[in-house]
Specification:
single chain, about 280 residues, alpha/beta, five-stranded parallel sheet, 7 helices, about 10% strand
Amino acid sequence: MKNRIIETAADRLFELTEAATENFNVNYEGYQGNIEKALLYFLDAMFPSYARYPEQPEWNENVRTHYLNEGCTLLSRALLKEMPEKEADEKCLMLVDRLPKVYELLLTDVLAGYEGDPAAKAVDEIILAYPAFFAIGTHRIAHELYLMGLPVVARLMSEYAHRKTGIDIHPGATIGKHFFIDHGTGVVIGETTVIGENVKLYQHVTLGAKSFPVNDDGTLVKGIKRHPNIGNNVVIYAGATILGGDVYIGDNCVIGGNVWLTHSVESGKTVYQGGEIK
């Protein structure tokens, strides 16, 4: 009885899978795992002294080459699910070529964490122990993949960091240097968010969409600006929610805890809970 039910269900699932190939690619075995492993290798290539990947080679001057080669192999293997081998290899090398720029940005993020948190005793602590650094490092890599026209790969990397840290940064978000998220749990940053330089967020901050316009047929309009812009030198405290693609928070603003904003704020202002602005 048991085996017959299982076999019948398996046969039916196979039939449905064959039919589903008209709408989406169902052959993604190993895809997500390879992308996640590639991410860890790329992070280790930038910070080999703090390597997170379990299979660490003996330390020498070629360690970065090893990590980059392993990351490229895994990412290319995943990309073969959706493109020819030559194009997959080109995409991998394009990402590797951008990693020095990503590393330079991450160095400013590390300093932002150390300088902005009195609890941080050393820069090493930020790299090793702060979930925000892992989330931001992942985002910096995923954002490059997003710009390269690989949104699914980028999103899988971002969601891996989301699962590990509770910080949800869409890979499409544009984030300037010297960025830090203190504590981080529950932070959400939407796809079309633009964040300037020297910005600090606390836990449970949402930079989201106010509403979702629809087409005449009722489907959602895609590809439009839905999330806010945040200027330079802005601090947004815990629980604040800022919504809307036409919302701009000016330079040097402070947004208080639990503030709800759906309108722009002039530069240099402080917004308190209850809507008071000074």
